[in-house]
Amino acid sequence: MKAFRGPKVWLWRWRRNPLKRRADVVEGWVVLGACLLTVLAGVLAGLAAAGAVEHGLARERATWRPVVARLVAQAPGSSREHGDRAAAGDRVWAEVRWRAADGSARTGQVRVEPGSKPGTPVTVWTDPQGHLVSRPSTASEAAFRSTLIGLLVGVSAAAVPCVAGLAVRGRLERRRMAAWDTEWSRLGPQWGRTV
Questions:
Q1: Which range in 10-14, 71-75, 153-157 is most confidently predicted, on average pLDDT?
Q2: Which of 16, 100, 128, 132 could form a cystine bridge with 108, CB 3.0-4.6 A?
Q3: DSSP code, position 188
Protein backbone atom coordinates (compact mmCIF):
# COMPACT_ATOMS: atom_id res chain seq x y z
CA MET A 1 0.00 0.00 0.00
CA LYS A 2 1.34 3.40 -1.00
CA ALA A 3 1.42 6.14 1.58
CA PHE A 4 -0.65 9.26 0.99
CA ARG A 5 1.41 12.00 -0.56
CA GLY A 6 0.51 15.64 -0.57
CA PRO A 7 1.41 18.21 -3.21
CA LYS A 8 4.97 18.12 -4.47
CA VAL A 9 7.32 20.58 -2.82
CA TRP A 10 10.64 21.03 -4.59
CA LEU A 11 13.82 20.48 -2.60
CA TRP A 12 11.88 19.48 0.51
CA ARG A 13 14.58 17.04 1.55
CA TRP A 14 17.06 19.88 2.08
CA ARG A 15 14.73 22.23 3.97
CA ARG A 16 14.88 22.50 7.74
CA ASN A 17 12.19 20.36 9.24
CA PRO A 18 12.00 18.74 12.67
CA LEU A 19 10.21 15.73 11.15
CA LYS A 20 12.88 15.12 8.52
CA ARG A 21 14.43 11.68 8.91
CA ARG A 22 17.85 10.46 7.93
CA ALA A 23 16.21 8.29 5.23
CA ASP A 24 14.73 11.42 3.64
CA VAL A 25 18.17 13.03 3.40
CA VAL A 26 19.71 9.85 1.97
CA GLU A 27 16.93 9.54 -0.58
CA GLY A 28 17.40 13.17 -1.60
CA TRP A 29 21.10 12.66 -2.23
CA VAL A 30 20.45 9.39 -4.09
CA VAL A 31 17.93 11.09 -6.39
CA LEU A 32 20.22 14.07 -6.99
CA GLY A 33 23.25 11.85 -7.63
CA ALA A 34 21.32 9.55 -9.96
CA CYS A 35 20.00 12.52 -11.95
CA LEU A 36 23.46 14.08 -12.29
CA LEU A 37 25.09 10.77 -13.22
CA THR A 38 22.33 10.04 -15.73
CA VAL A 39 22.85 13.34 -17.52
CA LEU A 40 26.65 13.24 -17.36
CA ALA A 41 26.95 9.60 -18.43
CA GLY A 42 24.51 10.07 -21.29
CA VAL A 43 26.06 13.26 -22.63
CA LEU A 44 29.71 12.20 -22.26
CA ALA A 45 29.20 8.70 -23.68
CA GLY A 46 27.09 10.03 -26.55
CA LEU A 47 29.62 12.71 -27.47
CA ALA A 48 32.54 10.28 -27.24
CA ALA A 49 30.78 7.68 -29.41
CA ALA A 50 29.68 10.26 -32.00
CA GLY A 51 33.19 11.71 -32.16
CA ALA A 52 34.79 8.29 -32.56
CA VAL A 53 32.40 7.30 -35.36
CA GLU A 54 32.82 10.65 -37.12
CA HIS A 55 36.62 10.38 -36.88
CA GLY A 56 36.63 6.81 -38.22
CA LEU A 57 34.38 7.68 -41.15
CA ALA A 58 36.47 10.77 -41.97
CA ARG A 59 39.62 8.61 -41.96
CA GLU A 60 37.92 6.19 -44.37
CA ARG A 61 36.98 9.05 -46.70
CA ALA A 62 40.58 10.30 -46.62
CA THR A 63 42.34 6.96 -47.21
CA TRP A 64 39.98 4.86 -49.34
CA ARG A 65 40.41 5.43 -53.06
CA PRO A 66 38.41 4.49 -56.16
CA VAL A 67 40.25 2.20 -58.60
CA VAL A 68 39.22 1.00 -62.05
CA ALA A 69 39.04 -2.80 -62.12
CA ARG A 70 38.29 -5.04 -65.09
CA LEU A 71 36.05 -8.11 -65.23
CA VAL A 72 38.03 -11.35 -65.46
CA ALA A 73 35.20 -13.42 -67.01
CA GLN A 74 31.72 -12.79 -68.30
CA ALA A 75 29.27 -11.99 -65.52
CA PRO A 76 26.47 -14.50 -64.90
CA GLY A 77 23.13 -13.75 -66.52
CA SER A 78 22.44 -12.31 -69.93
CA SER A 79 22.14 -8.77 -71.16
CA ARG A 80 18.57 -9.61 -72.25
CA GLU A 81 17.72 -10.52 -68.65
CA HIS A 82 19.52 -7.37 -67.58
CA GLY A 83 17.13 -5.24 -69.64
CA ASP A 84 14.15 -6.90 -67.95
CA ARG A 85 15.60 -6.62 -64.44
CA ALA A 86 17.28 -3.23 -64.72
CA ALA A 87 14.33 -1.54 -63.08
CA ALA A 88 14.69 -3.82 -60.06
CA GLY A 89 18.41 -2.93 -59.73
CA ASP A 90 19.56 -6.57 -59.85
CA ARG A 91 23.30 -7.06 -59.95
CA VAL A 92 25.37 -10.25 -59.83
CA TRP A 93 28.69 -11.18 -58.25
CA ALA A 94 31.65 -11.40 -60.59
CA GLU A 95 35.43 -11.55 -60.29
CA VAL A 96 37.44 -8.45 -61.13
CA ARG A 97 41.17 -7.65 -61.26
CA TRP A 98 42.91 -4.36 -60.42
CA ARG A 99 46.33 -3.02 -59.52
CA ALA A 100 47.00 -1.94 -55.93
CA ALA A 101 48.95 1.23 -55.11
CA ASP A 102 52.14 -0.85 -54.77
CA GLY A 103 51.66 -2.21 -58.32
CA SER A 104 50.64 -5.74 -57.33
CA ALA A 105 47.71 -7.41 -59.11
CA ARG A 106 44.66 -8.08 -56.97
CA THR A 107 41.41 -9.92 -57.60
CA GLY A 108 38.11 -9.90 -55.78
CA GLN A 109 34.35 -10.30 -56.08
CA VAL A 110 32.11 -7.28 -56.73
CA ARG A 111 28.52 -6.73 -57.87
CA VAL A 112 28.19 -5.91 -61.59
CA GLU A 113 25.51 -5.73 -64.24
CA PRO A 114 24.36 -9.21 -65.40
CA GLY A 115 25.94 -10.37 -68.64
CA SER A 116 28.85 -7.87 -68.55
CA LYS A 117 31.69 -8.89 -70.89
CA PRO A 118 35.26 -9.71 -69.80
CA GLY A 119 37.43 -6.59 -69.61
CA THR A 120 34.48 -4.32 -68.75
CA PRO A 121 35.73 -1.51 -66.46
CA VAL A 122 34.19 -1.39 -62.98
CA THR A 123 34.95 1.21 -60.32
CA VAL A 124 35.85 -0.35 -56.96
CA TRP A 125 37.03 1.18 -53.68
CA THR A 126 40.22 0.01 -51.98
CA ASP A 127 41.94 0.73 -48.67
CA PRO A 128 45.64 1.72 -48.45
CA GLN A 129 46.65 -1.98 -48.47
CA GLY A 130 44.76 -2.55 -51.74
CA HIS A 131 41.89 -4.61 -50.24
CA LEU A 132 38.35 -4.17 -51.49
CA VAL A 133 36.11 -2.01 -49.28
CA SER A 134 32.67 -0.49 -49.65
CA ARG A 135 32.22 3.06 -50.87
CA PRO A 136 33.00 5.43 -47.96
CA SER A 137 30.20 7.46 -46.43
CA THR A 138 29.71 11.02 -47.60
CA ALA A 139 30.11 13.82 -45.06
CA SER A 140 26.34 14.12 -44.61
CA GLU A 141 25.91 10.33 -44.26
CA ALA A 142 28.73 10.27 -41.72
CA ALA A 143 27.16 13.11 -39.73
CA PHE A 144 23.81 11.32 -39.66
CA ARG A 145 25.37 7.98 -38.71
CA SER A 146 27.55 9.46 -35.96
CA THR A 147 24.61 11.44 -34.53
CA LEU A 148 22.39 8.38 -34.49
CA ILE A 149 25.05 6.18 -32.87
CA GLY A 150 25.87 8.94 -30.38
CA LEU A 151 22.22 9.19 -29.38
CA LEU A 152 21.86 5.43 -28.98
CA VAL A 153 25.06 5.12 -26.93
CA GLY A 154 24.12 8.16 -24.84
CA VAL A 155 20.67 6.82 -24.01
CA SER A 156 22.09 3.40 -23.22
CA ALA A 157 24.78 4.84 -20.96
CA ALA A 158 22.27 7.11 -19.22
CA ALA A 159 19.99 4.16 -18.52
CA VAL A 160 22.54 2.54 -16.19
CA PRO A 161 22.68 5.22 -13.44
CA CYS A 162 18.99 5.97 -13.92
CA VAL A 163 17.94 2.38 -13.30
CA ALA A 164 20.42 2.05 -10.44
CA GLY A 165 19.04 5.22 -8.82
CA LEU A 166 15.47 3.97 -9.20
CA ALA A 167 16.44 0.63 -7.64
CA VAL A 168 18.13 2.30 -4.66
CA ARG A 169 15.23 4.69 -4.22
CA GLY A 170 12.74 1.79 -4.34
CA ARG A 171 14.73 -0.05 -1.70
CA LEU A 172 14.77 3.04 0.53
CA GLU A 173 11.02 3.44 0.03
CA ARG A 174 10.40 -0.20 1.06
CA ARG A 175 12.56 0.24 4.16
CA ARG A 176 10.69 3.41 5.07
CA MET A 177 7.31 1.69 4.66
CA ALA A 178 8.53 -1.25 6.76
CA ALA A 179 9.65 1.17 9.50
CA TRP A 180 6.26 2.89 9.39
CA ASP A 181 4.50 -0.48 9.67
CA THR A 182 6.63 -1.35 12.69
CA GLU A 183 5.85 1.99 14.35
CA TRP A 184 2.17 1.71 13.51
CA SER A 185 1.95 -1.80 14.94
CA ARG A 186 3.49 -0.48 18.17
CA LEU A 187 1.48 2.76 18.39
CA GLY A 188 -1.68 1.84 16.48
CA PRO A 189 -3.38 -0.05 19.31
CA GLN A 190 -2.89 2.96 21.59
CA TRP A 191 -4.61 5.26 19.10
CA GLY A 192 -7.95 6.44 20.38
CA ARG A 193 -7.40 5.52 24.03
CA THR A 194 -8.25 8.17 26.51
CA VAL A 195 -5.66 9.08 29.06
A1: 153-157
A2: 132
A3: G
